[in-house]
């Protein structure tokens, strides 16, 4: 049985962020470039459940390392990262 694909909408800024966070990973490079469908200012990224979970794991690690100010509040990139973690959650 083939895994179903899910569509996630991101902005250009969010796509650029995702590409930086996943730099060097061939799977995500392909998913976040070739398969991203642009419709005006919005971009659709399609991936399966396993890929979405892997991306969320990567984002969570990035958030823990770089996403907080000295007072433990999220910085601007951390806020974007938190939003993407939530968005790539598949119920």
Record keyword descriptors for this entry.
globular, 91 residues, alpha+beta, 4 helices, 19% strand, three-stranded antiparallel beta sheet, 51% helix
How would you portray this structure in words?
By secondary structure, the protein is α+β, with helices and mostly antiparallel strands. It has one domain (7-87). The protein has helices spanning 12-21, 26-31, 49-66, 76-87, and strands spanning 5-11, 37-39, 42-48. The two termini are 19 Å apart. The relative contact order is 0.20.
Helix and strand content put the structural class at alpha+beta
Query: What portion of residues belong to β-strands?
Result: 15-25%
H and E string: EHHEEHH
Q: Roughly how much helix do the residues carry, as a percent range?
A: 40-55%
In short:
The protein is α+β, with helices and mostly antiparallel strands. The chain has helices spanning 12-21, 26-31, 49-66, 76-87; strands at residues 5-11, 37-39, 42-48.
Topology, pairings included?
Layout: E1 5-11, H1 12-21, H2 26-31, E2 37-39, E3 42-48, H3 49-66, H4 76-87
Antiparallel strand pairs: 1-3, 2-3
Helix pairs in contact: 3-4
């Amino acid at each position: 049985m083939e895994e179903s694909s899910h569509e996630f909408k991101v902005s250009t800024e969010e796509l650029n962020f995702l590409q930086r966070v996943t730099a060097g990973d061939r799977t995500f490079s392909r998913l976040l470039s070739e398969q991203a469908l642009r419709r005006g200012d919005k971009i659709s990224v399609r991936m399966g459940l396993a890929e979405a979970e892997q991306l969320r794991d990567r984002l969570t690690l990035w958030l823990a390392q770089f996403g907080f100010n000295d007072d433990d509040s999220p910085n601007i990139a951390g806020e974007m990262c938190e939003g993407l973690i939530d968005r790539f959650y598949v119920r």
